[in-house]
Amino acid sequence: MSYSLGNSPSIQSLTAPPTTHAPYPVAHSTSKTCAKSSFSGIREGMLTPGTSASNPSSMIGCQAHPFQSIIPSIGLECVMSWEAEDVSLVDLDWLKPHEEIKVKNRDKLLEMTKKWGGFTKPLLVDSQTGSILDGHHRHSVAICLSLKRVPVILIDYLSDDQITVDVWPGSGLESITKEEVIEMCLSDTLYPPKTSKHTISNHLPPIHVLLEVLAKSE
Questions:
Q1: In the prediction, which pLDDT does 218 show?
Q2: CA-closest candidate to residue 114, choices 90, 91, 147, 72
């Protein structure tokens, strides 16, 4: 089964202030056109595809704009990991959830996000369809705050064999497939909270993207 993105989302590379999560370098992108895969930082040119927030194949081409950023650079020793410079900002309207949320958890995260003044973790999103794989509560917080964009890590979900999905204990399902996750995202229904469990959900980089930045469309 193949899934088409349709209109490509508007993606702008992340510019973020320093965060206390880790020491930070100053990263400055140079003027060049580059093709990036699933684990590459999105800096400038054309992008080629390639922990729970409540607890503090088709190809696409997306124009990424030049930027200068002061962000933490973190190399995590795990099966899969990203750095903060791999994070991009995408239109909130493009994202598609596949699970319901726990309202109490969302409300707690909403208050914390207001105190932080920004997002401290990106969402994990399929680059082909906009399907949310991890970060449903962060997505709901963005809706509550009427944000235009959210920080995400984009992955080529269906074609990357290193990314696996299982079910949480007590979910009521014996198993789940990537295709079923995508199909649910593209449908009018949702799984209950804490249904899918992705292998890399605990390895998202710490960030800090101001709410005032996310409130703007560009």
A1: 78
A2: 147
Token couple for 60: 């696409």
The full set of domains in the chain, from first to last, is 11-214 (3.90.1530.10)
* Residue-level pLDDT at 201: 52
Nearest to 40 by CA among 13, 67, 18: 13
Q: Is the pLDDT of residue 128 over 50?
A: yes
Give which of 70, 83, 78 is closest to 162, Cα–Cα: 78
CA-wise closest residue to 85 among 13, 146, 144, 33: 13
Structure tokens at 1: 């089964």
Q: HEC states along the chain?
A: CCCCCCCCCCEEECCCCCCCCCCCCEEECCCCCCCCCCCCCCCCEEECCCCCCCCCCCCCCEEECCCEEECCCCCCCCCCCCCHHHCEEEEHHHCECCECCCHHHHHHHHHHHHHHCEECCCEEEECCCCEEEECHHHHHHHHHCCCCEEEEEEECCCCCCCCCEEECCCCCCCCCCHHHHHHHHCCCCCECCCCEEECCHHHCCCCCEEHHHHCCCC
pTM: 0.64
Cα separation of 163 and 47, whole Å? 20
pLDDT digits (tens, 9 = 90+) for 34-77: 223 233 333 322 232 333 334 433 333 333 333 333 333 333 33
Average pLDDT over residues 159-163: 83
Look up residue 96 and give its DSSP letter. B
